[in-house]
Amino acid sequence: MKALLLVDIQNGFCPGGNLPVPDGDKVVPIANSLIDSGKYDLIVASQDWHPSGHGSFASAHPGAAPFEMGELSGKPQMMWPDHCIQGTLDAELHPALKSEEIDLIQQKGEDPDIDSYSAFRDNDRDASTGLAEFLEGQSVTDLDVCGLATDYCVKFSALDALEMIPGVRVRFIEDASRGITPEGVAAAIEEMRSRGIAIVDSAEVLAG
Ligand code: VGL
Ligand code: ZN
């Protein structure tokens, strides 16, 4: 079974959102062409889904400013602007994304005391969201991962997929993803590659 994981293609990570990734919205037409390709047996998506006052928000820590390192539950934590708050427009999947074709939407980041970049488990690698067990149960052998942001949620999701779904082959679709910083993206791609994730383009996927 071949599956596609669309990571956090939400208003909040697109221009106009609360934590905009440069050109984040450019992934939407590419994601739609992947969705429509007929290459996948299963299409899943993740959705960053924070309660207001989440501990990853700078606003929850007196004196902290967004994009500085701070601390959450005794561990280093990037301080983010308030983003993707449950039930707000910011948290909705991008309106142009063909979300009616998505088989399962995995929400994450609900625990106020820990962040969850990965679609599969919290940042302390403890609490599983259940997505790995679901994909394993569906006998997924091949998983393509793309979306927002390459240097955070996409990278951690791809690495966890490899670790948590027995025997799975993982590919990262570079042009269907965007990151927060160019240096972060370069380091993320190198880390994924070194762990055995294939770095591909949507053209290659669509032609394959
Ligand atoms: C993300 C920062 C905070 C992401 C989510 O989707 O990459 N980044 N929350
Ligand atoms: Zn978040």
State the major sheet: 6 strands, parallel
The end-to-end span amounts to 15 Å
- Could you say which small molecules are bound to this protein? pyrazine-2-carboxylic acid, zinc ion
Quaternary status: single chain
Order of helices and strands: EHEEEEHEHEHEH
Average pLDDT taken over every residue = 98
Beta-strand content estimate: 15-25%
- So what's the overall shape? globular
Strand order of the largest sheet: 5-2-1-6-7-8
Structure description:
With about 210 residues, this protein is an alpha/beta fold. It has 5 helices and 8 strands, in the order βαββββαβαβαβα. The chain has helices at about 25-35, 130-135, 150-165, 180-195, 200-205; strands spanning about 1-5, 40-50, 70, 75-80, 105-110, 140-150, 170-180, 200. A 6-stranded parallel sheet has the order 5-2-1-6-7-8. Helix 3 (about 150-165) runs parallel beside helix 4 (about 180-195). It is globular. The mean pLDDT is about 100. Bound molecules: pyrazine-2-carboxylic acid and zinc ion. The site of pyrazine-2-carboxylic acid (VGL) has 9 residues, from helix 3. Belongs to the isochorismatase family. Pathway: Cofactor biosynthesis; nicotinate biosynthesis; nicotinate from nicotinamide: step 1/1. This is Nicotinamidase. GO terms for molecular function: metal ion binding; nicotinamidase activity.
Any chance you could write out the topology, listing elements then pairs?
Elements: E1 2-7, H1 27-35, E2 42-48, E3 69-72, E4 75-78, E5 104-108, H2 131-137, E6 142-148, H3 150-164, E7 169-178, H4 182-194, E8 198-200, H5 202-207
Parallel strand pairs: 1-2, 1-6, 2-5, 6-7, 7-8
Antiparallel strand pairs: 3-4
Helix pairs in contact: 3-4
